[in-house]
Design a protein that fits this description.
Layout: E1 3-7, H1 12-21, E2 30-34, H2 43-48, E3 51-54, H3 60-66, E4 70-75, H4 84-98, E5 102-108, H5 122-134, E6 138-144, H6 151-155, H7 159-162, E7 164-167, H8 178-190, E8 197-200, H9 209-220, E9 226-229, H10 231-240, H11 245-259, H12 269-274, H13 281-288
The structure holds NADP nicotinamide-adenine-dinucleotide phosphate.
Length: 294
């Protein structure tokens, strides 16, 4: 049997995937693809016996070398604003040429009838899904919802003082934690029966920004308001705090999706894959904002 190779192992999702994978699979059956083999985020895994394959999504030949002897590739999607199409296509084509059996891809959750386009994300994820399906490789597409860990990016870390200040909308978001999504990655990597399937990994707890303000009120013991502001004011608040304009507009597009219910579906796929209830909003907020201080 060939190795399981995890990409993005120095990042949030890939690192947690590796951590959980090593609880199920001996380290000598696992490899990582990293740009920098000296990265401290993987040092512990190397000590355990994980093999390091140096490679870059932009460098086709490095991928071809890295995939030699690999059976399954866990492809953690490339970051926005970095020509994701070229990177994902390189990985898929190199995997095919190197004789990899299965590629698992982390895409974005979306409603099938939706016309919402999150710039730098939606179109390139659809492109990657189609390229993977057309490649002849076995595939599994894991559509990820917004991460809990990204929530404070949307309304800041001082909600207890200023409220949850976001543009108008009552849509709900079924966010999930990086650990639960990593556990789903590991389930797909270590179980049979997930070949040529697409899963929607939304959490089981969908909350609107009004609900989120209520959760924060309960945790803090003080009233946290849900304050509606215009998209213009939302982006201006971010840029006046040093956030680049394109990032402000990017976050604003995610909020448009949340507020319109784009990520509200609770499919149950995540819960079924990990075999337990995923983390809830309240559990996340208690960890992230534990005291009377957000
Ligand atoms: N649903 C959501 O809320 C949400 C939020 C954020 C991101 N995402 C998506 O989910 C992915 C994983 O999230 P994350 O939090 O784990 O991101 P992250 O912490 O930024 O990690 C990204 C990983 O990708 C690697 N990488 C970037 N460019 C690469 C390249 N050209 N070749 C090889 N490796 C490369 C990075 O390696 P280096 O250490 O070399 O940089 C890092 O390990 C993101 O890339 C993004 O597509 C989703």
């Amino acid at each position: 049997m060939g190795k399981i190779l995890v990409t993005g192992a120095t990042g949030g999702l890939g690192n947690r995937t590796l951590e959980l994978l090593l609880k199920k699979v001996p380290a000598n059956q696992v490899a990582v693809l990293v740009r920098n083999p000296q990265s401290e985020q993987i040092a512990g895994f190397i000590k355990e016996g994980v093999e390091v394959h140096q490679g870059d999504y932009f460098d086709y030949n490095s991928l071809l070398r890295a995939f030699n002897g690999v059976e399954k590739v866990m492809l953690i999607s490339a970051i926005a604003f970095t020509d994701r199409n070229t990177q994902h296509f390189n990985v898929i084509a190199a995997a095919k040429q190197a004789g990899v059996k299965q590629v698992i891809y982390t895409s974005i959750t979306r409603r099938e009838d939706s016309d919402l386009i999150i710039p730098e994300v939606t179109r390139s994820d659809i492109f990657a899904e189609e390229a993977l399906k057309a490649s002849g490789l076995e595939y599994t597409i894991l559509r990820n919802p917004p991460y809990f860990e990204a929530m404070p990016n949307y309304f800041g870390s001082n909600a207890y003082e200023v409220g949850v200040r976001v543009p108008e909308g009552s849509g709900k978001v079924a966010a999930a934690s990086l650990y639960d999504l990593a556990a789903a990655n590991v389930a797909v990597l270590t179980q049979n029966g997930h070949e040529n399937k697409t899963y929607t990994l939304n959490g089981s707890d969908a909350r609107s920004f009004t609900d989120i303000a209520d959760d924060l009120s309960e945790i803090s013991g003080t009233r946290v308001a849900h304050v509606t502001i215009s998209e213009k004011e939302y982006v201006e608040n971010l840029t006046s705090n040093g956030v680049p304009l394109h990032v402000g507009e990017f976050l604003s597009a995610w909020l448009r999706g949340i507020n319109s219910g784009e990520f509200s579906e609770t499919s149950g796929d995540l819960e079924r894959l990990i075999g337990r209830k995923p983390m809830t909003f309240k559990e996340f907020f208690k960890q992230r904002f534990p005291q009377n201080k957000a």
